[in-house]
Amino acid sequence: MGRKADALREGRRAVQLKPISRDVIEGAEVEAFLALIYARAAEPDQAISQIERLLTTPFAVEYADNCITIAYLRTRWEWDPLRNARGFKN
């Protein structure tokens, strides 16, 4: 829709409002959405950084509907913009 800056701003704001440090499950879900925003907004380095953080955060995966797991990253079309990005392994 041509509102990349708005999407990034709102995604970052959501992470501020619901940080993992206060709620690992919902905070991780919000951070997963931010990673997806980065991926869809052609910001692969930020998306991959966010994904790496989530994959190494205890309890941040597999507890939410939109969790980040290796299988999820490999199979879901939402992550297609990262398939050829440096640092993203299929």
Question: Any chance you could write out the topology, listing elements then pairs?
Answer:
Blueprint: H1 4-17, H2 24-40, H3 44-55, H4 70-75
Describe it.
The longest helix has 17 residues, at 24-40. The chain has 90 residues and is mainly alpha-helical. It is globular. Helix content is 54%, strand content 0%. The protein has one domain. The protein has helices at residues 4-17, 24-40, 44-55, 70-75. The relative contact order is 0.17. The N and C termini lie far apart (28 Å). Helix 1 (4-17) runs antiparallel to helix 2.
In short:
This protein has 90 residues and is an all-alpha fold.
Describe this protein with a few key phrases.
globular, mainly alpha, 90 residues
Structural class: mainly alpha
- Largest beta sheet, briefly? none
Mean pLDDT level = 86
Overall shape: it is globular
What oligomeric assembly is this protein in?
Answer: single chain
In the predicted model, the low-confidence regions spanning at least 5 consecutive residues are none
Query: Order of SSEs, N→C?
Result: HHHH
Total strand segments = 0
- From the alpha-carbon coordinates, what is the Rg to the nearest angstrom? 12 Å
Number of helices in the DSSP assignment: 4
Helix amount, in percent? 40-55%
Number of domains: 1
Relative strand content: under 5%
What is the terminal-to-terminal distance?
A: 28 Å
